[in-house]
Amino acid sequence: MFPLKTQTLPHVSYRPKPFVSSSSAATNKLSFHHNVSLTVSLSVGSPPQTVTMVLDTGSELSWLHCKKTTNFNSVFNPLTSSSYSKIPCGSPVCRTRTRDLNIPASCDPGKLCHVAVSYADLTSIEGTLSTETISIASTKRPGFIFGCMDTGFSSNSDEDSKTTGLMGMNRGSLSFVTQMGFHKFSYCISGFDSSGVLLLGDTSISWLKPLKYTPLIHRTDPLPYFDRVAYTVQLEGIRVGRKLLNLPKSAFVPDHTGAGQTMVDSGTQFTFLLGPVYTALKNEFIQQTRGVLRVLNDPNFVFQGAMDLCYLVESTRPSMPVLPTVSLMFSGAEMSVSGQRLLYRVPGMVRGRDSVHCFTFGNSDLLGIEAFVIGHHHQQNVWMEFDLVRSRVGFAEVRCDQASQKLGLKP
């Protein structure tokens, strides 16, 4: 989930001491489920409590709901854990500037480190910065820093009520992968059911196709609209069918403020493009599907506030027509979006005998964000590898439901 677009704070050098599992060759395998978000279960506390967290490569600080309310079905109870500890606002951790922790530190009335996080979808959450023991498969990490949250507002309360919190997976000093000491992780999202697999650590999988890699983009200079701890790659062009969109390369390059970076974000469902690029893609897709799809001409309907290209499809139609593939072209790699991943059926939206399906690319400008965001819907049936040592992201097409079975994980 991309952060609320405020001034990006400089990345800091503070790094919690990584804890590596007793077997350095071990890979921690976790299954997860997905719908609007990717959710994974793990154990927190002593004795361990099972929590369900949203897997989010676009966020840094992990957090859990710690206060029982009628809105949340799953919470973490710190009162029953002997390993739980609150962080005072005078702690060096609280005084470390990151994207999620502002300077000066915010103290609550009990002089504890208060933390508040906001996201671009208007979700906000706040509570106390704390430490706890995290357990995943063969790895246990005491002293893990997270937010124990007790108040907040959600723009999608139905979905948020199904999870206990969020697992921040970006490259920041407080992220899950940094604190746990994992230098590589991979995930695979099934497009055939709601299953997925997350691998933490090095992987050597003989049956996987060779991955195509694109380098991560690093910026050392502080820019107001550039997230320096995101998984930023370079989008170089977009092809619809065989036609390359007629756009200059400068349309995909961040400007002098850092606006216009391309982030790979598992916490965002769909893909969002800056206005001029989105408009070019939208017009070309309409042109190539003319006579095949019926456009919903309703200016008052914009799905999720940013997706204004929608279609009417007969509810009794057995299958979608053949659609042109949209290829996202990165430096050294491509991600192809085809078939059902191009259109999303809007739940509960019916016009006569027709259901409404929307194009799964949206306009970043309508959301008020200054970035390209590659969401998890377009990562379905793609093996996604995040290599922090070699500073790159790898792609390979694969049937993710079959990959989970081969790895011994059940949906």
Automatic annotation (TrEMBL):
<comment type="similarity">
    <text>Belongs to the peptidase A1 family.</text>
</comment>
<dbReference type="GO" id="GO:0006508">
    <property type="term" value="P:proteolysis"/>
</dbReference>
<keyword id="KW-0325">Glycoprotein</keyword>
<feature type="active site">
    <location>
        <position position="56"/>
    </location>
</feature>
<dbReference type="Pfam" id="PF14541">
    <property type="entry name" value="TAXi_C"/>
</dbReference>
<keyword id="KW-0064">Aspartyl protease</keyword>
<dbReference type="InterPro" id="IPR032799">
    <property type="entry name" value="TAXi_C"/>
</dbReference>
<feature type="domain" description="Peptidase A1">
    <location>
        <begin position="38"/>
        <end position="396"/>
    </location>
</feature>
<keyword id="KW-0378">Hydrolase</keyword>
<dbReference type="InterPro" id="IPR032861">
    <property type="entry name" value="TAXi_N"/>
</dbReference>
<dbReference type="InterPro" id="IPR001969">
    <property type="entry name" value="Aspartic_peptidase_AS"/>
</dbReference>
<dbReference type="InterPro" id="IPR021109">
    <property type="entry name" value="Peptidase_aspartic_dom_sf"/>
</dbReference>
<protein>
    <recommendedName>
        <fullName>Peptidase A1 domain-containing protein</fullName>
    </recommendedName>
</protein>
<dbReference type="GO" id="GO:0004190">
    <property type="term" value="F:aspartic-type endopeptidase activity"/>
</dbReference>
<dbReference type="InterPro" id="IPR033121">
    <property type="entry name" value="PEPTIDASE_A1"/>
</dbReference>
<dbReference type="InterPro" id="IPR001461">
    <property type="entry name" value="Aspartic_peptidase_A1"/>
</dbReference>
<dbReference type="InterPro" id="IPR034161">
    <property type="entry name" value="Pepsin-like_plant"/>
</dbReference>
<dbReference type="Pfam" id="PF14543">
    <property type="entry name" value="TAXi_N"/>
</dbReference>
<keyword id="KW-0645">Protease</keyword>
<feature type="active site">
    <location>
        <position position="265"/>
    </location>
</feature>
